[in-house]
Specification:
Blueprint lengths: L8 H84 L9 E4 L3 H7 L12 E4 L3 E6 L4 E7 L13 H17 L3 E5 L6 H11 L6 E4 L9 E4 L6 H11 L2 E3 L12 E5 L5
Parallel strand pairs: 5-6, 5-9, 7-8
Antiparallel strand pairs: 1-2, 2-3, 3-4, 7-9
Helix pairs in contact: 1-4
């Protein structure tokens, strides 16, 4: 009968300890790559976030520069249009070269004919009205000729036709009341749509309202156009003309606009068409 030998307890314990040590080393070597991969992923994510912020910042700056460039181009085009108009009219009639006329565009000739039938007799939509201190001239762009002239200080057209006294006085009062108030009007774009300040300026100038400057508002989230009355003077004619032209609410101050200047500032909102 053969007796099996028993492994000593000390030997079994030693073998178990070695097996445990091997498992610990295996687990440790397995966890190290996972830890390193996690660190690398975090670094990559942080780098991508920083790159995205930098890209968005540069993209925003480029959009702002493009918006300013478009606005400047529109303003220059509007100025060139007025300069060319004055230069052409000066070739057809003698004008005061040292005086800048008020310029308007005929939108509804039938309404004008009902108020001054003689002066606006041949007026058509798109004709340009130029008013100096001594004369008013109606110029046809399509025909390239003067179609009506009225001397402000007289009640007779150069052609010899009589002008109704009441009509002549109404025209003079309408043209000179705002002029006598001599308002300083500025226009600011309160939206992210480029060119709105320039378009508003063109509209106001076309309605014989002088615009001193245009620019951008402090914030760009105005939904409604606002008239900010900054002067303590009444200026009723100017205020009425601005309200009629814009249909905007009149306020005396705005919390987000602390650098406003002049007598009136028009902040153009998204409702402007």
């Amino acid at each position: 009968m053969i007796k099996s030998k028993k492994t000593p307890k000390s030997t079994r314990a030693s073998s178990k300890n070695k097996e445990d040590d091997f498992k610990d080393e295996l687990n440790s070597s397995t966890n190290k790559p996972i830890f390193l991969i996690t660190i690398i992923v975090i670094i990559v994510i942080v780098a991508l976030v920083l790159l995205a912020k930098n890209f968005l910042g540069k993209n925003g700056e480029q959009e702002q520069i493009q918006e300013q460039t478009v606005q400047q181009n529109q303003e220059q085009e509007a100025k060139n249009d007025l300069d060319n108009l004055i230069a052409r009219v000066s070739q057809l009639i003698e004008i005061n070269q040292n005086e800048v006329p008020t310029i308007a565009t005929v939108q509804d000739p039938e309404v004008l004919k009902s108020t001054q039938p003689v002066f606006y007799k041949d007026a058509e939509k798109g004709d340009r009205l130029l008013v100096w201190s001594d004369k008013a001239v109606l110029y046809s762009v399509t025909k390239d000729k003067l179609i009506s002239v009225m001397l402000i200080d007289q009640q007779q057209l150069p052609s010899g036709e009589n002008v109704n006294s009441a009509e002549s006085n109404t025209a003079t009062t309408t043209a000179t009341t705002v002029e006598e108030e001599n308002p300083v009007i500025n226009v600011l774009n309160g939206t992210r749509t480029a060119g709105l300040a320039g378009r508003m300026k063109t509209k106001l100038v076309g309605l014989e309202l002088p615009v001193a400057s245009i620019g951008d508002a402090g914030v760009k989230t105005y939904t409604d156009t606002v008239i900010v009355k900054l002067t303590d003077e009444e200026m009723p004619a100017t205020l009425k003309a601005l309200k009629d032209a814009t249909g905007a609410e009149v306020v005396t101050s705005l919390e987000n606009e602390t650098a406003l200047k002049g007598d009136f500032t028009i902040i153009v909102g998204e409702d402007f068409e």
